[in-house]
Specification:
Distance between the termini of chain A: 31 Å
Strand order of the largest sheet of chain A: 3-2-1-4-8
Largest sheet of chain A: 5 strands, mixed
Oligomer: homodimer
Number of domains of chain A: 2
Number of strands of chain A: 13
Order of helices and strands of chain A: EEEHEEEEHEHEEEHHHHHEHHEH
CATH class of the largest domain in chain A: Alpha Beta
């Protein structure tokens, strides 16, 4: 350990439920990583005090050059302003960069959490070696990030790549976003589990029916385990998820002619049960040239993508690198 | 008239059925415009001779600085190579730029025809004043072009913005592109008319039933005329088209957060019967920020967009302007 000699960068992934932070060196090796429940940090005032203490502690061990935040909502990367954070009602209209820099005396940068994860995968993970890439984050929500021409694509007002809100048909369930039949309203984690419960009672032969009887609930991991054991219900379930995600991705691929789709988040743990039918669906249904030129791969960093990407933003923004 | 004094540019829009050309001055005022049936020009050898004569004729009157071609298929803007042209089987693997420059002794540039139309609308037409725009061309096919960050977006392999091939549901008609339930298989001109015929016999009260009895066929113009006369069948028909196009555009808007959608092609002649329900659909169903930031407008140049855009490419490429 050579404390305080080498340059380090702090990445903070401020999620809807968890607070994660990590310290990386100049080569983005993770030197420190912690994940904790958000708890009282939901209050911005508590957060400020906590982060001040955290940075003070970490600074004893590391030479922190800058800090990057990945935040769950529309934030302005240029000005460092938080418009609002999803599911965190007290975070609204805060000049976060300015405030943090006053408190911490270290340069602070911030971006959307999915953009942070996208940058991590693009520069350091499964997205390397292309110019046009979409990141898909499968969780409670279904989010996305876009790299076009080697740069994060930010659109007219910093809200892009909302793959979870591609409508899959003209009629269907109403989505939180006010849309109808959005991808997320089918394959968001909770919606997936609700769907599994709805159809499971028709399949007493599935091992999952026994699991449910025993544990009262089932998880997406249970469904993947059942698929591994050859359970037809579970395999069909993942095929169905692949079809829905595939339909949205066919549209994206035909429009954007991207080279890589990097899929992360809890649901991606279904592995080949999701990826194999998904790749086949896109290969069969997307237009020839686009289908031939796109690879669908699993994210490398998974739950660390946010902090690594936030640390990357901290480093690159400090070096005035455009990304 | 001040022949041969001012700089002029020739744009050639080489469609699947028509050959159009136009001469513009440095301010893109159209000095000459002609549209003719493709006929024998479907043969590349005949085309070469014809274009040579055409350029020789026009050169007597205009100082032609460069020539731009808009072509219906995948072509390589950088190298000037034609991969193939849709519905024109003899046009395959031709080094068109090199060949034309040898024959004409004038700099030649080429691009996809929809990119040409997109550039015309973006720099000179309804797309002015934004950085991110989608062009939608409604015709036999449903094509598109994308301007992102003020530049044509070309993707990994020069095939982008295929809005006609966004799938609208998991099941549906098989599309020429091999996809299922693509937008084009619903609202391509011929598919629209087939749909009108299929449902019209259930609506003897519509004025269109009388039109069909009299003329044996109906056209999309007839349907617009009927809508203008207050015919409920015709109004519902355009509402239905707006819903289908709207569903695809909601996905595009949620992903790309573009500021303008410029709609051209024959179907856009339906005017408010299409645009009013379309704008409402996108406003209601797209995500708030994206919906607030996008305008849906009618193309300015319509059937001249291709030649004006081709001439613009000729001028800008000659001036080494990036676009």
């Amino acid at each position: 350990m050579r404390p305080k000699v080498n340059k380090h960068y702090l990445g903070i992934d401020f999620g809807g439920t968890n607070f994660k932070f990590g310290v990386v060196d100049s080569e983005f090796n993770l030197k420190e990583f912690k994940i904790m429940s958000l708890g009282k940090l939901k209050d911005p005032r508590v957060s400020i005090v906590f982060i001040k203490d955290l940075v003070s502690d970490l600074s004893k061990k590391y030479k922190l050059m800058s800090i990057g935040f990945g935040l769950p909502g529309p934030v302005d990367f240029e000005t460092g302003h938080i418009h609002y954070l999803v599911n965190l009602k007290n975070w609204r209209n805060i000049g976060w960069k300015k405030l943090m820099e006053q408190e911490l005396k270290i340069p602070v940068f911030l971006d959307n959490d999915v953009n942070a994860a996208t940058l991590a995968e693009y520069y350091l993970g499964s997205g390397r070696g292309c110019l046009n890439m979409m990141m898909v984050a499968l969780g409670t929500g279904v989010g996305g990030g876009l790299i076009l021409g080697g740069k994060i694509y930010r659109g007219a007002s910093n809200v892009t790549a909302e793959i979870g809100h591609i409508p899959l048909s003209i009629k269907g369930p109403k989505c939180n976003c006010k849309g109808i039949a959005c991808l997320e309203s089918y394959i968001g984690n909770q919606n997936l589990l609700n769907y599994a419960y709805r159809i499971l009672h028709k399949h007493p032969e599935s091992v999952l029916s026994a699991v449910k009887k025993k544990k009262l609930i089932i998880s997406l991991e249970d469904i993947t385990d059942a698929a591994k054991a050859g359970d037809k219900f579970a395999i069909d379930f993942w095929n169905d998820v692949a079809e829905k995600l595939g339909q949205a991705l066919v549209g994206v691929v035909n429009i954007l002619n991207i080279e890589k789709i990097v899929i992360g988040g809890g649901v991606s743990a279904a592995g080949q049960f999701l990826f194999k039918p998904l790749r086949k669906f896109v290969r069969v249904r997307a237009m020839d040239i686009q289908a031939k030129n796109v690879k669908i791969v699993k994210a490398k960093f998974q739950n660390k993508a946010g902090i690594i990407g936030s640390a990357l933003i901290a480093k690159y923004a400090l070096e005035k690198r455009s990304f």
